[in-house]
Amino acid sequence: MSEFDQMYREVILDHYKNPRGHGEIEDADAQAEGQNPLCGDEVSIFVAFGEDGDTIDEVKFSGRGCAISQAATSMLTEMVKGRSAAEVATLPRDELLEEIGIPLTPVRLKCALLGLSTLKLALHKAKGTPLPEEWAGASSDLELR
Amino acid sequence: MDAGKLRADFPIFEQEVRGKPLAYLDSAVSAHKPRQVLDKLRTFYETSYANVHRGVYTLSELATAEYESARDKVARFVNAPESRELIFTHGATESINLVAYAWGLDNLGPGDVVLVTELEHHSNFVPWQYIAKRTGAAFKAIPLDNHGELRLDTLDEIAGSGNVKVVANNLVSNALGTINPVERLAAWAHQQGAIMVVDAAQAAPHHAIDVQQLDCDFLAFSAHKMCGPTSVGALWGRAELLEAMAPFNLGGHMIRSVKLEETTWGQLPYKFEAGTQPIAEAVGFGAAVDYLNDVGLDAIEEHERELLVYALERMADVPGLVAYGPAPERRAGIVSFNLDTVHPHDVAQILDMEGVAIRAGHHCCQPLMAKLGVAATNRASFYLYTIPDEIDRLVTGLHKAHKLLS
Question: What is the pLDDT of residue B97?
Fold first, then answer.
């Protein structure tokens, strides 16, 4: 398989063209916005917890982005449903990267991880879970480093 | 001018990218370097290098002569009345910061207006926004119309809103390629009693510049976009303004005398060249100017316009392609565009796999992107070494991107 076919393999294109969890949640329990200063992309993440107030019941996202960021965030919404806030707050990025399953350059890595780091920021704001390292030094809803 | 022949001067084109010859359509962000510049850097380091203006020994004299000769060349390149008005900096960004700080902090205050445009690169926007805030001056931007043209009809209203003290504009827009009416703006600025600061980073590589004809007060540009080395650029300023200004960077070499009680500043241009300068890079800048002069700025501009017309014609056949920017006769060799809703990162990635390098992003022009209603665009830009085959490969890649992602 050529590098080209790998990068835009079918599963990526499927998530890009039919994103899961695309939209917004009114009165979300947790919410945050993230930006990629490189391309000006923005993503908003919305989380609703289940009755126990901790298990992630639903995740939605809105915003604009490239195929990699949109597909990665779409996959992420499927991945974290049913997990606890604490678990997702420390979700290793490799777990998402394995799911994406394509070779990514450092620049594209930022695209792929924008959704995850924004989700972690939302959980931090709602639950006080640890701030992901990408946000270290950011005063509030600042740009992804 | 024969771009195919000139291309042989640029070693970068000897390599392949992803198994394909390099098609480099991102010269607006930085240009490649010809052997003539690379050889000059090596020869200078090997035969004439020492710190400048320091030693009485032969080598230092040699280095100083090379450095000052480069200054003369760069000054002549923009038709500066005097070489001492040409200050070496680390690039256009530092040149603009120099004016914003050294002139702005002492000359701006409440009631004053600092005027930029919505078309500026962040480097001619953010320093002014910051210095305006520091001094209490108002910060305003000449708006754009929906075609990305400056709305000069708003000038009277802006003049009525305060005491306009600075007008800052790029001669050529890095995002759209628009050649802006700087001469007209300079005349208007002077009527208001304002200084005119021109960001020529995108103009200098492609377009003959004459500061006396523009009648501006400051002009900033960078070597790396002109086939020269990185980390060196220039600020041209009117001698009387530069002489009246406080220094920007302070330290060695920019002084007349230093005493515990007081330090006095050196003469132009050294007052603004504190510390060890990018000496070899400045010498390389001189070699780049020689190279451009040999090819001829008018020939470069004509070549780029031909490529622009050809590119726009070919790209019009790509389904869903939206191109931004003015008519070719008022534009440098830059095509900014979007492909349907396909994100520029994806377009650029797919093109990279074809060995075609273009820029995708906001081009440090977020206010402009907001005006166009997009987060980012794709940008293909041309230079003296660009050949039509590179544009053909761009167009083929765009068809592929459209097919895959639209």
Answer: 98
